[in-house]
Amino acid sequence: MSEFIKNHLGRVIAMVCLVAFLVAMVMSTGTDSSEGESNAAKSKTEKVESTSKEKDAEQKTDEKKDKAKEEEEDKKDKEDKEDAAETDEEAAITSEFSETSNKALADLIRRYYKAYDKGDLETLKEVASPLSNREKSYIAFMSKYVKSHDIKKIYAKQGLDAGSIMVSVYMEEYFQKVKSPAPGAEFFYVETADGAMSINNRYSSFNLENKDLKMDETITSQIASFEQEEGVVKLLSDIQTEYNDAVIQDKELAGFIKDFQSKAAKWASDYQKEEKERQKAAEKKAEEEKKAAEAEKKAGEAKIFVTTDGVN
Fold first, then answer.
1. Is the entire prediction scored with pTM above 0.90?
2. Alpha-carbon torsion angle 227, 228, 233, 236, nearest 10
3. Euclidean distance between CA atoms 163 and 191, whole angstroms
4. Which pLDDT score, from 0 to 100, does residue 12 have?
5. Which pLDDT band, with edges at 50, 70 and 90, does 39 fall under?
6. Which residue of 40, 107, 156, 194 lies most exposed, with the fewest beta carbons within 10 A?
7. Residues with Cβ < 8 Å from 92, sequence gap 6 or more?
8. Cβ distance 231 to 156 under 8 Å?
9. Residue 148, SS3 per DSSP
10. What's the DSSP call for residue 203?
11. How far is CA 312 from the centre of its chain?
């Protein structure tokens, strides 16, 4: 046995060294792999933390910007309100007919035309009321052809009292598919209540002509006098001259207006027919309801008579 070990000792030593080497390699590989995974995880964590910090920094920067923007907008709104208050104070409506830069009045007229052009009756009623059924129908008709109104100047004079204003608006009316506008003028009777302006539509140009809604004779008399004032007459004359020149110079506009006037006449005729039919239907319904009420009354009286007669 000792002879065998002696003869193979070198080989045994070599095998032991090989085994030791392999074990060392395995352990070394495991350690390196573990360290690599640890370093990768650490690097990934650091990247996530870095990205998170960058996002937080960006969010804080955006929040600061938004806050600064809000503060700037609030400051501007406050300045605009102060400027508007100063402007309106300087542009107070007087008893003299003159051009005005009153911001509240200008805003009211702009809101009116914006709703009018769209045929938006609900919004329109918020700034101008009441609206007759005829005018509602006319606005719906007009909204098919009118694109917009460009307000050029606003003239005003104090009305019956300090809270009322008679207004003449010089504007240009743009139509669908027509480049050139038609100069025009329109009258408004504006009233102020609780510091807010609104249009009393009983005295609109439309109702003054058609008289669908009941009006106060004192106010209509004052409006008639207003329309005869020298400044008002001159303004309307100048606008009429501009309108005539525009129609002469632009054949497309002239052709449109001629066609439009024909359609407007047809609308008026159709509305009159429909209104007569509605009146007839309403009268017929009222008559039927009256007869039904009378018949019911007679039936009740007959019932009472029969009951009383039966008692006797």
1. no
2. 30
3. 6
4. 46
5. low
6. 194
7. 102
8. no
9. strand
10. G
11. 74
Q: What pLDDT score was predicted for residue 40?
A: 54
Helices 230-249 and 217-227 cross at an angle (nearest 10°) of 70
User: Count of residues for the chain?
Assistant: 312
- Is the pLDDT at 34 greater than 90? The verdict is no
Q: Which pLDDT tens digit goes with each residue over 101-151?
A: 999 999 999 999 999 999 999 999 999 999 999 999 999 999 999 999 999
At position 157, the amino acid (one-letter code) is K
Nearest alpha-carbon partner for 130 in 57, 73, 203, 185: 203
Q: Which two tokens stand for residue 186?
A: 């329109």
Q: How far apart are CA 152 and CA 183, in angstroms?
A: 9
Structure tokens that stand for 206 in this block: 């439309």
Torsion-angle region of 61 (φ positive above 0: left; ψ -120 to 50: alpha; else: beta): alpha
> What pLDDT was estimated at residue 120?
96
CA–CA separation, 217 and 223 (whole Å) = 10
Which amino acid would we find at residue 179?
K
Is residue 112 within 8 A of residue 190, CB to CB? The reply is no
